[in-house]
Amino acid sequence: xxxxxxxxxxxxxxxxxxxxxxxxxxxxxxxxxxxxxxxxxxxxxxxxxxxxxxxxxxxxxxxxxxxxxxxxxxxxxxxxxxxxxxxxxxxxxxxxxxxxxxxxxxxxxxxxxxxxxxxxxxxxxxxxxxxxxxxxxxxxxxxxxxxxxxxxxxxxxxxxxxxxxxxxxxxxxxxxxxxxxxxxxxxxxxxxxxxxxxxxxxxxxxxxxxxxxxxxxxxxxxxxxxxxxxxxxxxxxxxxxxxxxxxxxxxxxxxxxxxxxxxxxxxxxxxxxxxxxxxxxxxxxxxxxxxxxxxxxxxxxxxxxxxxxx
Length: 310
Fold this sequence. Notes:
single chain; alpha/beta; Rossmann fold; 2 domains; two-stranded antiparallel sheet; 9 helices; 9 strands; elongated
């Protein structure tokens, strides 16, 4: 059921889909309790708020299962004795993103922070979610990834690159911030027990765009939400000119049309061949759940995926 995946992704409590009466089986209550128990140590405030909303909804509709309802109340009561706090004060959390039926990726991040420590890479952004889904699930994207050498630029939390481990022949996750590279390594470790990949099939390293050090030669360059600032576009485009690759796939959330227009103009001026291969529209209604991963409309209402070749 979608509810359990959304709880693991920490979708805002106010928009969590409430179960219908027919969905409230013993199996539902068992999974709800199991899911809450698996994340309560990470974010007790979130679990308490979620349980409060779910229990209120069930009581209002007189939906009960004595055995499991008692267990729900016990869990909720154990949290009620703790200070509720503000969810925005949780500095870091471990979120779980459902890529498909066989793959979920755990990411330690700061989901309530737009930026901090001079970087925007403390949280997973919308274009990263889209590319992680498409590169793993869409057959039109698969030839760029399967058994290919892949380099990710501006990897941030590492969601995309980690999701490709075991699918690509080798993945190099790069970022310009050494602290984020360390965090990427930690996030890889969070997924080692559930993902089939070997240590020699991935690496992570610091890489500054436009600098003297080049990215490793690869089949496919990937990047998501790396076009957010006009000031960094020249270095990014310069890197796309210098690096050795067959194709680059760049996901860009449209937040500012002027920035997107500048990005496209600079690609053209650099004599790079580019095309938009997908435009994902994000509903302005946050309660629309049309993908395995929830997209936050406050982060932008459309995402463009660019295919770039020299």
